[in-house]
């Protein structure tokens, strides 16, 4: 705690109970999940249609394997990102919100990692089919590095730099 001009300690953070904190954190988490869910559901829906196109039969065995992996990753990401909603519904009123928030937060983080994997595999497949060039893995690696920077490195750096131990 820092001292004010009068010498009295100044409070940092919020003055809230564990339940109030859990309620606030739950609302913030649900807003975050809505953003991620929208992206993964649009991507997953698009992926589901690819197998029904004429172009799918022209894919190499490797590209078809990448496609199948991408669909499975997208399904897993969708499950992890919808999981917090189901968790909340099934434990609502049981007085376990702080524990539910922690578990939902972990599911959301897992969903983001799976979304990263889905986006990576999707990009790899699309660029392989579109270009057939050897630079594709390097381009995909660059995009993955960008995702890692935006989604994980900068937030973790900010947390480390601007929060007390």
Give a structural overview.
With 165 residues, this protein is mainly α. It is 79% helix and 2% strand. The chain is built from 5 helices and 2 strands. It has helices at 18-50, 54-58, 61-91, 97-131, 136-162; strands at residues 2-3, 9-10. It has a two-stranded antiparallel sheet with strand order 1-2. Helix 1 (18-50) runs antiparallel to helix 3, helix 1 packs parallel to helix 4 (97-131) and helix 4 (97-131) runs antiparallel to helix 5 (136-162). The longest helix is centred in the last third of the chain and has 35 residues, at 97-131. The radius of gyration is 21 Å and the shape is elongated.
Percentage beta strand: under 5%
Largest sheet: 2 strands, antiparallel
Structural class: mainly alpha
Mean pLDDT: 91
Shape type: elongated
Poorly predicted segments: none
SSE string, helix = H, strand = E? EEHHHHH
